[in-house]
Write the C-alpha cells for this entry.
Amino acid sequence: MMAAVIFIISVAALMQFFVSYCRSLIAASARRALSVDVQDVIGIRRSASGEDFERVMQFLHLCPDRREDRNGVKAIGAYFRLLGAVGTTMGKLIPSLRVWTESERSQCAYFAAVALDRRIAHNRDMFAEQMSA
Amino acid sequence: MSVLVSAGRYLVFTQHGLVSSEYTYFYYYSDAILTICLYFALMGLYAIVFEELGAAMRLRVFMMLLLIGTTLFSYAVVHQSESRMLTHYIVEISQNLYFVGLILTYVLWAALLKLRESRVRVIQIVLSLGVYFSINAANYALHNAYPNLRFVWAFLPPAAGMFLPIAWIYAFMKFDDEARLAPARLAAVPR
C-alpha cells in the first residue's frame, strides 16, 4: 500500500519535473534569433509550428552533431513525443490542454531549429579553422 | 565519493560475481550512502536559495532530523514485518530515502518559484535532481511492490544515474553565473 502511494506520487512529480526541465532547456533558446541561412533552409522565421519538428530533426541528423547539445536534443525529442501523446489522448476531452501542448510542440520545433543553427555555425567554424591551418 | 563507490563495486563484482549476496548488499548500501551524499548537495542548494532569508542553518538541522527519522521509520516498518530480511530493509530504506529526497526537492522547487529565483544554473540543477529522485523513488517503490518485474526496475537506476551528471555538466558548461530565466514560465501548472 505504502509502495503504491509512493509510486503514484513519484510518477506525478516526475512528470512535473520533466516538463519544467524541458521548458528550461527550451526557454534558454527561445530568445535566440535564427540566422537568415537557417530561416531560408527550414522555412521558419520567428515562430515555428509543431509540424515543423520532424522536418527540422531530419536536417539536424544530416548535420554533424555537437557533443554539447546532443542530450538536450534527445530530451526535447522525448518531451515532444510526450506532448504528442498527451495532446492526442487527453486533448479531445480538454481543449485548453490541446492548445497548450500545441504551443509547447511549436517551441520544441524552435529549439530544434536553434540547435540546427548552432551546429551549422560550429561546422562552419571548424571548416574555416581547417582551411586556415 | 561516486568514483570510490564505483571502484568498490567493481572490486566486489570481480571477486564475488553479479548475483552474489555480497555484491547485492554492497550495491544497495553504497547506493544509500550516495543518496545521503546527495542530501548534502541538496542542503547546499537550500543554503544558496535561502541565503538572503538567513534560514539556511535551521533548514540544515531540519533536514538532518528528517534523514534520521526516515532511517528509523524504515527500520520500524521492516522490524514489524514477519520477514526480517536485511535485503527487504535496504530496499525499503532506499525507497524512503529517495522519496524524502523527492519531497525536499519539490519543496525547494516551490521555494524557487515563490522567491522568483532566476539563476538558470540553480534552476536546472534543482529540476534535474527532482527528475533523478522521482525516477528512483518510483523505481524502488515498484521494486518493493513487484519484485518480479526485474526487467523494469533493473534498467531505470543506471539510466537515471547517467542523466544526473550529464544534466549537471550541461548546466555548468552551457550557462554562466549571470544567466537568468523567469521561473514562473517553467512551472508545469501555469502561475
In short: The interface with chain A takes residues 77, 95, 98-99, 102, 105-106, 109, 120, 123-124, 127-128, 130-131, 134-135, 137-138, 141-142, 144-145, 166-167, 170, 173-175, 179, 181-182, 185-189 of chain B (CB under 8 Å). Chain B has a mean pLDDT of 80. The first helix of chain B runs from residue 2 to 16. The CA atoms of residues 13 and 67 of chain B lie 29 Å apart.
